[in-house]
Amino acid sequence: MKKIGSIFLLLLLAIGCYLILAPSPIDSISWKPPTNLGYTGALQANEKLDNLTFINENICVGCEDVAVDPAGIYLYGGENNGNILRLNIATKDHQVIANTGGRPLGLHFDSKGNLIIADAKKGLLELNLKNGSIQTLVTAYKGEKMVFVDDLEIAKDGTIYFSDASDKHDLSQVVEDLMERKPHGALYSYNPHTKETKRLLDDLYFANGVALAADQSFVLVNETGDYSVSKYWLKGSKAGTREKIIENLPGFPDGISKGEKGLYWLTLIAPRKQLLDWVMDKPFLKNMVVKLPKILQPKGGVYGCIIGINEAGEIMHNYQSSKPKFLQISSVQQFGNRLYLGSLEDTGFAFLDL
What is the reported pTM? Predict the structure, then answer.
């Protein structure tokens, strides 16, 4: 028994030395998050999200975003293995129509009926639904590779607004990016006519969901690492400026999309954790945490939350679930009186009737 105890102590000592002395993959800085107010006030906890319905619970693995075709017949999702899946909403028939060879995240139709894809590994892509061909639109900016293309929306003139969550950390390093607390994210525009890419905003803390105003006057972008949503003005006297419309959210904002009647639908993929907020102003500890095996690194909690906001960031709708049937809801797309939902990790096509 003494021998076993000695071996155990030596193992603990070795682990401790590794955590302290081994180089860290991040060089984090101190940040003191605002006090988490939790699901209170306009975000009062409820169980309204329990009313969601599955179209098919067993297909579409990790369809982080979904897109409804303009006629409302088909629902599209991008699986975690690169597959683009098409589901007939009425008949529930489904088929794989393409594979990006990467990890498709954001999806949106352009005016020609092509499906534009924000792929975390491959960049900004165009899928021709008539012949199944995939064309690469953007992978870099001024010679600098985009590491984590995340979400997009398309203007009436064809301009594609899209986010690069991080120019340093890839899809497998989300925890590293959040822990480092350095603004590696950016918001871009791509003109399909001139093939020109512009950087509209940089220094974003994990740039995520993107939504365009109905009048095209501004674009919204989520900062998952900052618990906030920002508005970037495209037109008017404020053009080229940015303002935060929501701050100090009780969860991690993921997808955002334009709804109807001036609404924007925002998902909080996981609730904030007290331990994570506590460690954020302790760089030494954060640098050690990310040296741990992935299985031991911090993980998001389980909680469902979708909110509808107006352009000023005021909360107009609030759907939550403490024991969600559909885990890690990462996107919402409105079509008529129905919200179609995507999930980063779970399986299935689901919707919520308003």
Answer: 0.94
